[in-house]
Amino acid sequence: MSFDQLLHLAQTLKLSPTLLQSMNILQMNTQELSDYLNNMALENPAMEYDEGQGDGPSWEEFSSRVPWLSDSPSTGWEGEPPADVGTVADQSDSLEVLLRDQLTRLHLEPPLLALCQYLADSLDPKGRLDQSDLDGLARAGVPEVLLTRAVETLQALDPPGIAARSLEECLGLQLRRMPGDHQLAIRLCDHLEELAQGTLKLKALADRLGADQEQLRQAVQVIRSLDPDPVGDLAPAEPVQYIRPDAWVAEVDGQLQVFVNQWDLPRFAVSRDYLAMAKTGREDEAADYLREKIQQAQWVLQCVRRRQATLEGCLTALVEAQADFFLGRAEAPGPLLRRELAEKLEVHPSTVTRTLGHKYIQCRQGLFPTAYFFSRKTAGEQSDKALKARINRMIREEDPAHPLSDQAIADRLAAAGIPLSRRTVAKYRQALGLPSSQRRRVR
Q: H helices within 140-200, ranges in order?
């Protein structure tokens, strides 16, 4: 065995931490970048809030030039923004309020009332009780008799089926509240898995339960009429997620212009005081720390400016390519690939992908993700979005008494020079959420 030393040249590409930081900033949307800058300012004393108005127009000047723009960004509020933005204001019909109101009317003794309210707050979104919560309360010293009474009290409340520990118990609680004798259906709840899989043999089960097949079929129909989710509309509403546009596209003086969102971003600058302190020429640990933070702040702010410029360039090219849609001359954007946009801008396709990924554009037609404007060519050199818009318009304008079939739509498109099969028309119609011609017929 011998050991040799060899020397050879190799070209490799390595991403430095600063370059990775620049790429991450490029990919951020407005909300993410705002949070990132605020967090960076908390960690870096060299970054301070800039009270200036910036180089661009104010929001009032911009909005006054765009008549259809009525909603302002978050910084456009006068005073403090509304409290609890994105949450449901009226909770008067919530499950929690409904259960607490019913418990109050029962005039329970304080220990039982407190335990019932605790269990009511522990229900999952489907209104179920977790057995592990009950076991934890038992281990904590809550008497079993009190736990049993609390569970029975909750299960006697409305809506029927609340506070069940399983689906079988939920359906059983509903059956016991229904008028009539449903003992067979209650016993059948123990065979829900077989019912769901379709492997339940009614004759064999009828013999085991001591009932005839007709009674068993009626019990199955009763079970199928029950609601496995008794909470329904009383479930907590999902918080509304507001979207901040990353840019606006507006026609100003007869020309389409792109306005990158700068009003929702906090304005920061490098502190002049710290810059002056760094020029003193001191060579100690504090001076090194200060220079490092100044360099970091300068780099971040430079990356933000570069992001704004790159985003504006990509969006300007996108708007030029989809000018017919933004000007209202087309129902939907035409075919466009990110690679084509990159070739026009003379950049790598990955730059376009990073710049426009997870971004939103607001125009007079509405608010759209940038991905909406990219699609491949389909039949007739059109995009799939344009074809869907055309099919939607044809169905909207049809005679309700004689609706167009998928084949009739395909024939009309073929006559217009767009060869499309009936199956493709059906696929696009279903994607639009439109029913078939038989269901659209009005007699």
A: 144-155, 167-177, 183-188, 192-197
